[in-house]
Every structure is written in C-alpha cells, then in structure tokens.
Design goal:
The complex is a heterodimer of chains A (about 750) and B (about 290). Chain A starts with 17 loop residues before the first helix and ends with a helix. Chain A is α+β, with helices and mostly antiparallel strands. Chain B has 3 domains: about 5-50, 2-Layer Sandwich (Uridine Diphospho-n-acetylenolpyruvylglucosamine Reductase, domain 2), CATH 3.30.43.10; about 55-170, Uridine Diphospho-n-acetylenolpyruvylglucosamine Reductase, domain 3, CATH 3.30.465.10; about 195-285, Enolase-like, domain 1. Helix content of chain B is about 35%, strand content about 25%. Chain B has 12 helices and 14 strands. The chains are: A alpha+beta (about 750), B alpha+beta (about 290). The interface between A and B is medium-sized, with 25 and 23 residues.
Amino acid sequence: MTKTEYQVVGTRPVRHDGADKVTGRALYGADFQMAGLLHGAILRSPHAHARIVRIDTAKALAYPGVKAVVTAADFPPAPDKLVDFGEGATPLAYVRGNVLASGKVLYRGHAVAGVAATSAHIAEEAAQLIEVEYEPLPCVLTAPEAMQPDAPILHDGLRTAELGEKAQGRSNISEHFRHILGDSKKGFAETDVVIEREFSTATVHQGYIEPHNATALWNNDGRVHIWCSTQGSFVVRDATACVLDIAQSRIRVTPMEIGGGFGGKIPVYLEPVAALLSRKTGRPVKILMTRKDVFEGTGPTPGSYIRVKIGATSDGKLVAAEAYLAYEAGAYPGAMVGPGGMCVFAAYDIPNVTIDGFDVVVNKPSTAAYRAPGATNAAFATETVIDELAEQLGIDPVEIRLRNAAKEGTRRADGPKFKRIGCVEVLEAVRGSEHYQSPLEGPNRGRGVAVGFWFNVGLPSSCTINVNADGTVNLVEGSTDIGGTRTSVAMQAAEVLGIPVEDVHPSVVDTDSVGFTAVTGGSRVTFSTGMAACEAAGDVIRQMKERAAKLWETVPDKVEAGRGSFRCNGHSATFKELAAKVGETGGPVVGRATVNPRGVGGSFSAAIADVEVDPETGKTTVLRFTSIQDAGKAIHPSYVEGQMQGGSVQGIGWGLNEEYYMSRDGMMMNSSLLDYRMPTSLDLPMIETIIVEVPNPGHPFGVRGVGEANIVPPPAALANAIYRAAGVRMRRLPMSPPAVMEAIWSK
Amino acid sequence: MQWFDYAAPRSVAEAVSLLDGRPDARILAGGTDLLVQIRSRRRTCGLVVDGKRIPELNELSFDPAAGLTLGAAVPCYRIYGDRAVRSAYPSLAEVAGLIGGTAIQGRASIGGNLCNSAPSADAVPLLIALGAQCRLAGPGGGRTVAVEQFCTAPGRNLLGAGELLVSLRIPAPAPGFAAHYLRFIPRNEMDIAVAGAGVSLRIQDGVIREARVALASVAPVPLFARAAGEALAGKTPGPEAFHQAAEAARAAASPITDMRGTVEYRRHLCAVLTRRALEAAAREVH
C-alpha cells in the first residue's frame, strides 16, 4: 500500500487561536464581565464526614453587600432518576449531592452553601458567617479500609452491584465486576514462573492551571445563560438542567477558553449554584475557585489498591493473568475502575485471564476522569510485573512484550476483539530507537520501559461549514478546544475541501448554535469531530458540484472535484472562483454533518525512562525520557507531540511526587501547588517523541486519538528504571524520595 | 480576603508607634508570606505596616572591618546583585537566589524570611552559621540578639509588642572562612526544604579553628546545632571530622513526620546534608 499524499494533513500550520493566546486576548472563564455582575463564594465542609444538623444563613444574609445565599434546600424537589452525561448512568441525587451537600458532608471541601455579593471579598467573608452545625462521623479514606465490613458507611442506601446482581446490606462497594477469558486457574498450572505483587497508588489531581469558574444569568424570561470553561458545553447544559429540574432548552452554555482539563472539567460544580444565586438575585453571578477549592472540591483521579499475578512459560510466553483492582471513587460511585479493567492486560495476548474490579466510595472528593482514567494505575502494576518476569526469565523487557503483544484479532478479557492496532509497531519503535539502543553509563543509573493502552471513544459530534464568497469557509463546532483541536479539525476540513487551512476559520460556539456534540474527552475530538468536519466538507463539495453543474449546464455527477478545483467537459473552476458565484447559482452554501462514529481505534503508547537515583536521599532525577505512541495518523504532528509530552510529564509527576497527602481525619495537607509538587520545567529533561502511524481503518485519514495513552506507561517505566538504578522494586506511588530511601534501607 | 488598614511609615520611630498597642498589626517587607497568609485565612491582620519606605530597613552596606548591614526589607535580588555581598558572602548570595522564584525574589527579603519564623526558612540556618545578629527597635529602644535566639516556635519569635526587626549584622569573614547552605527538596526548585543544613568553617593552617552548623525543617525553630560545630573545632577537615559533625547534627534534630518527610528520613537527611555542606565549604576555603 502506498502512502497517501496529503496537502494539509500531516503539516504543522500555526494554530487558529494562536494570536489570541499569545497576546493575552483569549477570554477564559474568569475574564467574563457583565453589567451588574455579582460575585459568588462557596462555603465548604471542614469535615471529611459529618451529618449536617442545622444551617443558619441569617448572619451571612445580614452582612452588607450580600444579595443571596443558597443551600441544597434551594434545589427544586425532583424525583430521583438515573442521569447520563456521557460517562455512565448516575443517580441524580449523587450529582446534586456533590454540587451542594444535603444531609451529610462526605469529604473535606464538600460544597455546603453559596453566597452572592457585590464583591468577591464580601462573598468570601459572608460565607464564613453561615453557621453550620455538624455532627462529625468517623471517616474512611482508602479502598481496602472502606471494604471492611465494619467500615463507616458513606451512603445508607448504597447496595453493591455484585456481578450484576443487587446485593443486600449496606456497603461502600458500589460495584464488583469480573471479566473472564479462558481459565486462569488452569492457565497458571501450565506456567514455569508466576509473579504476584501488590500495589497501591495515591490520589492525584489533573492539575490544570486554570481553576474552575462559572457565570450564570437566570433571565426574566426563565432562560438561563451560563459562561464557563468546560470540556463539554452540552454536559454542562444537560447536567445543570437535571440538577435544577428544568428543560435543557432553557439553558444556553457558552464555553469560554479553557486552561486545561484532562478530564477534570467534565463534571458541574459551580454552574448550578451560580444559576440558583442568579435566580434569587435577578443578576448575573460569577463564581471562581481558588487552587485549594480545586484540590479539595473537584474530582481527582482514584487512589487504588491493585494485585496482579502473571504466569509465563520459560520461553517467555504469557499464559495466565489475574488482576484485582479496588479503586477509590471518592464520595460518590464512579471510580473509573471499569476502564482499569479494560486496560490492565490490554497490551498482551494472554489466553487465560480473570479480572476483578471494585468501585469503592471513600471520604475523599468525588473522583473525575483524568487522561486515560484508571489505566495508569493498572499499567503501573502490570508493567512492573512484566519487567520482573523478563528479569527472571533473562529476556529483554521489550522482547518479552513483543513476544506477547496484542494484535489484530486478540481478544481482551472484557470482551472486544482488537481490530487493526499498533502495539507491535510501537514496541518495535522502542526497540529500534536511538534512545533504547544507546548505552546508559554511570553509577546509580537505570533504564526502564513500559507500554500502555487506551481504547479512545467516538460519541456524537456536529459540524457546519459556511462557505464565504471570498473562498474561505467558517467551520462551526461544539468541541471545546483543550489540545489544539480547532486546528486539527480545520485541517481535515481543509484537506477534503482542497483549500489552505488558513482559509478555514474554526469557531467553538455555544449550545444554541451547533448540533449536539459530546464531551471533549476520550481522545475523541480529532477523531470524531474531525470526521464530522470531513463529512460536512463533503457536503459542501457535493453542493459546490451542483453549483458548477448549473454554471456549466451539466449534471452534478459529471463534475469532478479534487484538490480544490472542479472540472467538467473542459470547464474548470477553483473552489474560490466557485465560492464567488454561490450568490448567482442558488444562494449560500452550508455543509452540515452529524456523526456518531463506530470505528474508534485504540492507541498504544510506550515510554523509555533513564533515571539516576541519589542513594543517600532517594531522589530520582529523570535524565532522559522518550514517549512513543501510535497516532493512527498525526493530523498536526506538533500537537501530537505536545500531547505525548504533556501526558508523559503528568505521568512522571504521578510516578515521582504527586499525591493527596491526607491526615487521618481526612484533611488534605498539601492543597497548594507548592506542596502538591507537580514537576516543573526544571525537574524534567526535554521529552523526546516518536510518532508511530498505524492508520485506523475507521477514520478517513486513519486518526486514532492521542490525548491519553501517553500518560499510562510513565510511572511503570520509572519504577522499572529505579529498580535498575537503585535495586529496589517500587510498588507504591508516588515513588517520592522518602519512599525510595525507605526501600533502599530495607533492601 | 479580609479588609485591613495599611500604613507606610517613613521612619523606625513612626513604625514603632504604629505597631505599639496594635497586636493585630504586622510588618510587611516583601509580603510574599504575609499576603498569602492573609488571603488563605491562616492569619488575620488588622493593620499592615509597610516597612519598605523606612531607610534603615533598606540599607545594604559592607564594611571590610565591621561586616555587612542588611536591612530587614532588602529584597533578595538586591542581595545577589550586590558585588560586595557576592565577593564576601557568596553563600548568602546563593541562598538569596534559592528563596522562591525570580519574581518572588524581587520582593521577598531575608529579614522577612527570619520574621516569618518558619522552621523551614532557607536563609536562617545560613544566617546562624554566619554568626548574624538581629538589630531590633521597639518602644523601649533598641536591642541586639543572635539569630539563633530569634525564633521561638513555628511562626513565632521574640519580637515584643511594638517591636520590629530593623536589620541584620553579619561579621566580616575572617581569612580561611567559608559557609554553605544545602537543602533537600523533592523537586529542583519552588519547594520547601524537607531538611536543610547551613554550615560555616574557619580553617587555618589545615585545622578547623571554628565551625557552626544550623539546620532547617527538623525542629520547631531553625536549629543551631552547637555540638555539631564544636565537634569540628581543632580537627583536620576531612571525612572523619565531617562524619562526626554529621552524626552530631542527626542527633540534634527533632523533626516531625508530615507531608514533607518522616522523622527517620529527616534525621538521615540532616547527616547527609551537613556532611555535603561541610565538604562544599571546605572546598571553597582551598
């Protein structure tokens, strides 16, 4: 098969939103201003677990400048039902309960009340004047503790979905699922070596730079307008409508620029509160979070307890594997353990597999998605066990992975059979890389590798393309841009239209102005919205052929189109020439498409890490790091590389230092960017990238989606590198200096 | 953020009279601790007294005989930008570049670092090692105290009602003198010390005549480890002497377990950092 030649796809144009971003003119949520704007503040729980006995708002309401106070009592009564905003069905009570606590607070930082005042300072002061009487309850902070029969119970009504059946009795386990492939017990009997290890990973936060924000205006006509930074404007619309029990169509959400999300800006936190405050005051209300609010009051990724057991024959063939995954959902069910179960052994063709997953509620913030949610925890376990197996069997760590790599036709334990995937190609790229081939010299240094998988998602996207008389087009989409997707989507439209990408003007618009578009998540925008743009561009081409046919007095089928020109019977016209004539050939041309694509292509990613460990302090310095990923097709290689670098850096932070450091009574002790210790540019080498392209047959250009898989392998790659540098196997994240030092001491 | 009053006195006397009788008043030098504390409600403050317009608090002058006068509000960038400081006290210039990032160093002062009285203050162990003295002014007049006596508990010091730190006085370095501060942080910048060690040595004729060791983040206050310094006096600089001093530093430390490290780990770091800082100081002498 010859490589397709593209005009636009695969090039590196300047991003359409670049000028606004570099000049500081891009408007983020906190920049929003409006006449009569009030400022809101949220009162948050000081306890990890407590019953709310009484809330008295009188003093706050009497404070000069205060216009309104709201609590959960201000939610309109609504029957409980299951709601789904694209991440699985959840009882409405849980969604509401996380927005404003009712009856009990379930974590420190849980929102209890909102205040609107004439200034942010007054609102903040007034929030402190709200008197809340709490009856503190014992708290439980980790999955293994919360699973104990005598553990404090978070939700009286929660019953375990035990292998599909509702269990009897109260529990903190919301779900137990099991995936079975072959017979793992039998499989282990046929192995020569079996390794079983226990792992735990800390709660970590996505750490986006921009804190959450929302402004709401409840208009006199009963319509609500919300401005916020979100990964999904339609999610905000639909979730706010459910929480407030009003029709979706009464809410219009305008997405502002977004300063990072990584999965954490999917849930609603402030929007319904701002809306309620606006309804009470008749004025627009803006609420901003502080960094502390972000850490304590929004959704981090689950901490987890994991056991992985893998058996192989002496020639390195993996025969059987078992995993036990217990993930901390935080205060409400939904720990992303499902994806953990899908990804834990996804890189390997293992005939006998059993995977048990447990979704466990604990007194920590309700978790949210974080870049390949659930997969990084699981890969940390699997990939370090694989590394141990390779060592015991005397096989190169890349070689053992290649011998067992999943490929087209491999069945995952959770059901699906892989279509065309690039696991082998990614591993071959690792093995062939200058980095892996280069020697690593010097004391206390080591190299580690790991591989990871993320399945990616499709979901609906809509797009319209309006042809301008000057030959340019305006592309209207609903996918908020967190990774340069305006450009990667516009490039696909430009390729189909045969015009320069600079002639495509992409806009991310509000929910009244574009067809339903699902969340920016699951690495889906360049894939799914890109496909919508391709189809909308195809619709434009079809209509332009009609116009050419009219001009040339022929039928549209006879008009040939390609590379931006139209030809028939000796006539020819460029896209631009034809665009100038749309007025005289029938009026405006608008291409439209809405897609819900099924041909999603999962992405594999690998990491090579070189580290040096200070044997006296336990500190790990990353000397060199390479990220390798199958992009399917890199539409804009710079943004693909940017995603790979970003995911790698977040994975390195997760691996080495990041954690919610909790006191026994459930207080997060390090809720600042100073103490939370994400890596800075001074803690990292340049992250090198190798893009692998195994086209996804389910997309016109072969796109897979590259936002997530890259975060999956870094912690495991670092653990494997630390082992070779310091001789210690790290099985707990983070592998912080004191943790590594303690491991060295107990060697 | 809570409301507070603000005053910007032009003299020490005016500052003292503003502070006197106002237990809710705080002096502002760079504000990089104070304003953050007020914003995050860790401190309430009814009156902020800006010290930056008082000449004595902005003095930075070196005299080869008398040593260095460092006004309490002199920001870090002036310290490491000062030729005399860089030449006579390279370790002080270095520590001024360690506090915060570049932007913070435009405001933050060593005097403020001391008055904030955090056990983790990076400048304070070095000031102790350098033998610095604090010059205070108050309603009852002035007094001078050694830096190692200044801090009394986390966030507390011996400043009385109406009293403020005017300046620090650091003796002129004698021949054969060198000092060094090392801290351990999990990241490479922008972090609070898990432990730190400030040391000074005066080596004459191949023998350590005098040494001082002080530690950060391993006690309720920046800790003067007197015994560690005394263990070095009269010894030949080298692995054996430094090991003994390191062990004395380990023994002097009384850390707690918190998000930055465990008791055991911090004690261990005291020994490692003391030894490494001594090695660096000794290299500087030669």
